[in-house]
């Protein structure tokens, strides 16, 4: 039996829900699949045969994936792949989708202790909440905060996060250690608003596994025009990403108009600071001319829909970006580390902010938001040749997602269903660089619950000491 998404449904999927429909009690063992455990994914070489694979051109059935040396070594029809590698035993994964890990194109790893402190607050809360919180961190608490954020991200299916640079008075090596120890890939930003430390940071982590160095200036007004231009040029020369928040809040746009006579995005363009290696976060307040500027320079954006809902002035017109060919990925902004909920928010925000007014009932459809949450998100971070897709030669950063759940039964259009119906509780395994990192939500080689307990104590102490300034604080 094959539905129009191209996936042949095996018995347990095609017949799911039939017993309930007939009014019969479920069997003692309702899942006929053979037991699967973390040891099955512990080898250096794996020949995986899931029910479906999310490839760059869509969902494919009857495909096998060979993982070797931390990379996808071979991908193709099961019969061909198994015949080409006769010495390897196929690991059957019935009821599972193998898909690329989610890419978080915008995160703040050292803000994990204070997420709820931002709820109900006006825009530009970085001045009242995030800066005081991060300034209170020391090396130990910054490490715990970053590792906690990395664990939450992994649990939500993210295999890559882009940290936009911390204001904590700690060495960036602390964050590198936290993400490395957690097992997540990280684009690691260093704030260099004063114009110093950039080359050293890029050279220091150039060859560090799972760490991709990046330079960051929080907002254009934090640095001089010369520093903005030089930082962007330095990243372009080094093949690194220059991260900056642009056109996020109305107050910042108006300050820029009053101080330099241009909106922030226009000013970066005037300075020559836009280009393929510049990643502008949020960009919720772009004029048509600014969108054309971004598209023409090849600049990448991060679309952060949950941040718009929680603390923003507007929703970025990401559907328009897609139509204009603007490069962008989706980002959490450190709100919640759940890849499926982020994809849902990305589509929902477009539907509510723009689709309802124009009668656009699809707003790009499911596949568009999956693409920007994975493959196109990696491209926005300058990692398009490294991660973000199940493709030969790329890093084996992937998820095994359980499809045999009530929410996806019966399945008719899997990309749409993954965006609107799937959840992180369906993620059986998270693999980064070919190595199993999480199994059913928890690390396999370090103590996740112990970190949570530690973060509870450390985080409460940090928030108690931080001079936070909440508007209408709640108990």
Automatic annotation (TrEMBL):
Segments forming domain Amidohydrolase-related: 98-436
Pfam family of the protein (one): HUTI_composite_bact
Keyword presence, Cell division: no
Domain Aminodeoxyfutalosine deaminase/Imidazolonepropionase-like composite: start-end pairs: 64-87
Top-level lineage group: Bacteria
Keywords assigned by UniProt, alphabetized: Hydrolase, Metal-binding, Zinc
Keyword Metal-binding tagged: yes
Protein name listed in UniProt: Amidohydrolase
Organism field: Saccharopolyspora taberi
